Polar amino acid ABC transporter ATP-binding protein
Amino acid sequence: MIRASDVHKRFGAVEVLKGVSLDVDKGEVIAVIGPSGSGKSTFLRCLIHLETIHRGHIEIEGEPLVTTNAQGHCQYVPPADINRVCRKMGMVFQHFNLFPHLTVLQNLIEAPLTVKGVLKDEIVPKAEALLRKVGLFDKRDSYPSRLSGGQKQRVAIARALAMEPDIMLFDEPTSALDPELTGEVLSTMRELAEEHMTMIVVTHEMAFAREVAGRVVFMDGGVVVEARPARELFAAPEHPRTRAFLEKML
Ligand SMILES: Nc1ncnc2c1ncn2[C@@H]1O[C@H](COP(=O)(O)OP(=O)(O)OP(=O)(O)O)[C@@H](O)[C@H]1O
């Protein structure tokens, strides 16, 4: 569950998020769509504290990450709490961000061992089960450089899942892939959605947004223009900007 309200973010003098609000319930799958530069990735990165915000409130699974008082003073919770709150989320990036010097299995177990202090005997079978789930058990001992882009991204998803997050954030997970490799990644994500994982997916894959997301958020110019059930938004966009964007994309 995520509650984000009135989130503002600047890079230097440029305000790229101008009061973004979004509530995501447990088990919801949200697709965030919109033109390039509209602030989609920045918003996602703010949710998991890869970027700091200048104003607004963010609450993850009922716990505050950052609040803003009546005087407009923005305050994050203490660092230990930031880490604990952010560990409730896993993130998958456009460019996979796997550790190149570690094998596939080592990539999966690294954070559970070092960040969570899970015992190796406990995490290895879990990691192996996750690799089976994403269809890559046979790549257990391979290094990332030997994998295709689609395989790397499925490892990245399994690695995020190894931390047992409540929420998964995906930042354009198929944008760096050749078109023939996007399907395998999208079907892994579709499976997660069917298992009722709470997911926010920043994507240019309109078919995925329409078929898998429960709700679609259209962002433009650093604001949420409309956020509605996927079927409704695609069938009858309310805002002219949404309509113009969809006409270009579909
Ligand atoms: N680290 C940064 N420093 C300065 N400006 C940034 C930084 N990151 C993003 N921006 C700017 O913020 C704006 C929003 O970028 P963002 O990546 O969030 O957009 P987006 O909607 O995800 O775009 P795309 O679909 O192309 O990925 C852009 O103008 C971008 O250039």
Summary: Residues 65 and 78 are 9 Å apart (CA to CA). The mean pLDDT is 97.
